[in-house]
Design a protein that fits this description.
By secondary structure, the protein is of the alpha/beta class. It has 8 helices and 9 strands. Helix content is 32%, strand content 17%. It binds zinc ion. Zinc ion binds next to helix 2.
Length: 268
C-alpha cells in the first residue's frame, strides 16, 4: 500500500518528468495534454451498457464512453503502459458514469449532505495478484479513489471501498477458452469485511475500467449480493470508464444519451 511519503515522492517525480519529457495525449498522440479536449469528448456522454448475452445478475451499468477510437489507447496507456497520471481524466470520466447510474435509482439519489446520510461506496473490481505484480499497481483502485474524490468535490458522500477480493487460485481469463473462462469466473471474488465505517445501507457501485461481456461485473454483483444488507437497501450498480461496443459501433464519438451494446462472449 502506498504511503504518504511514496505519494509525495511520486508527485515530485511526475513534476520533474513533466519538465523533461514532452507530454502527449494518450488518445491521439498530439502534444500538450494528458488527454486532449477532443479525446475527452469520447468519455463525456455516459451511456447504459447492455451486453448482448445478458449474464445472470448483470447490474445496471453505465459507461462514460465506448472502448473505441482514442479511448482504447488511453485506457491501455493507463492500464498497461505505466501512464498512471491518466487516473485524473479517466477517474473523472468514471465519476460521470457513477453520477449517471445513480440517477437510475428509485427515490431521491444521494446528494450533498453529511457523509453518513447515504454514502456511495465505489467498489473496485480487484485485479489478480499476478496482474497487480506485473503492473506494479492496482489501476482500478486508483480510478476508484480519483472518482470518489471527484464526487466528493461535487458534494456526493462517496468514497472508495475495496470490499471485494480475489479468491486464491483464480487468474485472469485471457487466453482461456469459453468453458475454462466460465469455470474460472465462478466464485472468483470474495467479500472483504468493511473497513472504515458502516456500509450496509450504502449505495454500492462496482467500478471497473472496461466492460466487455459483463461476466465479471455480474460475478462481482453476485458476490456483493451476499452481504447482509437491510431490506430496501438500494440495488448494486456498476460504472465503468468504457464499454466494448459491437464492431459497427464506436467509429465516432457518441452524440447523445443511448445504449452501448457490448460485445458478447465470456471475458472480462
Ligand atoms: Zn487527444
Amino acid at each position: 500500500m502506498a504511503t504518504d511519503r511514496d505519494d509525495a515522492a511520486m508527485t515530485g517525480w511526475r513534476a520533474l518528468a513533466d519538465l523533461v519529457l514532452p507530454r502527449t495525449c494518450a488518445g491521439c498522440g498530439l502534444p500538450g495534454a494528458l488527454l486532449c479536449a477532443g479525446c475527452r469528448r469520447w468519455l463525456a456522454v455516459p451511456r447504459l451498457a447492455q451486453p448482448r448475452r445478458h449474464p445472470d445478475g448483470f447490474p445496471p451499468t453505465v459507461a462514460a464512453g465506448g472502448y473505441a477510437g482514442p479511448v482504447r489507447p488511453a485506457v491501455l496507456a493507463f492500464k498497461e503502459h505505466g501512464r498512471a497520471e491518466l487516473a485524473g481524466p479517466l477517474g473523472a470520466a468514471l465519476a460521470l458514469a457513477v453520477v449517471a447510474v445513480l440517477s437510475a435509482l428509485p427515490g431521491d439519489p444521494p446528494g450533498p449532505g453529511p457523509a453518513e446520510a447515504r454514502p456511495v461506496l465505489l467498489v473496485p473490481v480487484p485485479s489478480s495478484v499476478a496482474a497487480v505484480q506485473r503492473r506494479g499497481r492496482d489501476h482500478v483502485r486508483e480510478l476508484a479513489r480519483v472518482a470518489a474524490a471527484e464526487l466528493r468535490t461535487a458534494g456526493l458522500p462517496a468514497r472508495s471501498a475495496p470490499l471485494l477480493g480475489r479468491r486464491r487460485g483464480t487468474r485472469d481469463s485471457a487466453g482461456l477458452d469459453a468453458t475454462a473462462r466460465r469455470a474460472n469466473l465462478a466464485g472468483r471474488f470474495v467479500c472483504r469485511p468493511a473497513r472504515g465505517g458502516p456500509f450496509l445501507g450504502a449505495v454500492l457501485v462496482i467500478v471497473d475500467d472496461v466492460v466487455s461481456s459483463g461476466a465479471t461485473l455480474a460475478e462481482a454483483a453476485r458476490t456483493l449480493g451476499g452481504l447482509p444488507r437491510p431490506a430496501g437497501a438500494p440495488p448494486v450498480l456498476a460504472a465503468v470508464v468504457a464499454a466494448t461496443p459491437r464492431r459497427a459501433e464506436g467509429r465516432k464519438p457518441p452524440q447523445g444519451p443511448g445504449v452501448i451494446t457490448v460485445r458478447g462472449g465470456i471475458g472480462t
